[in-house]
Amino acid sequence: AQKVTQAQTEISVVEKEDVTLDCVYETRDTTYYLFWYKQPPSGELVFLIRRNSFDEQNEISGRYSWNFQKSTSSFNFTITASQVVDSAVYFCALRVYNTDKLIFGTGTRLQVFP
Amino acid sequence: SQTIHQWPATLVQPVGSPLSLECTVEGTSNPNLYWYRQAAGRGLQLLFYSVGIGQISSEVPQNLSASRPQDRQFILSSKKLLLSDSGFYLCAWSATPGTSLVDTQYFGPGTRLTVL
Known about the structure:
Chain A is an all-beta fold. Helices cover about 0% and strands about 55% of the residues of chain A.
């Protein structure tokens, strides 16, 4: 069975601090996709990134970076120099190849204070 | 570009009343469509998904049903709402296999339903 664990329920930081959101996944399949979504207070889920299981290259997009390590089944998300607008709930998700189902973690609520 | 719409944005309904939530997608054809529910302070639960007109798969047996009368329209319904149906309902789409966007689900703005 597949599972995504986001052990951090809530994180609070002060603006300009760096913060890392953890994601650990479980699957026996060798081909799968990992995702991060952002849910701001408005509620809409905003797609941030997709990674497939064959691509362990880390990715950086502006202040966002992602660290994918198959050896530890982790796909962690780091925000550098956090801003108040980064305050949201962040979800990590897993989808196994040839299935339609996204398995979501329970989310991490990030609060960035000015 | 593709866009996804949901309405209404918010809804307050009495217990026992019917429900109809609508989701439409623009800018793509033959999408896969999904309904999720998010209870207050919790994660997302997949309710239904559809790979084509009239094709509905249910993930969790419950008080709700879904229909897909047109290629880019997905409707979530109930004949009699329960208190436990309260939550935030999100519709999502993904492209069909063979396209570059096939692996990612994109979400709509959601409908916040309160059953009293």
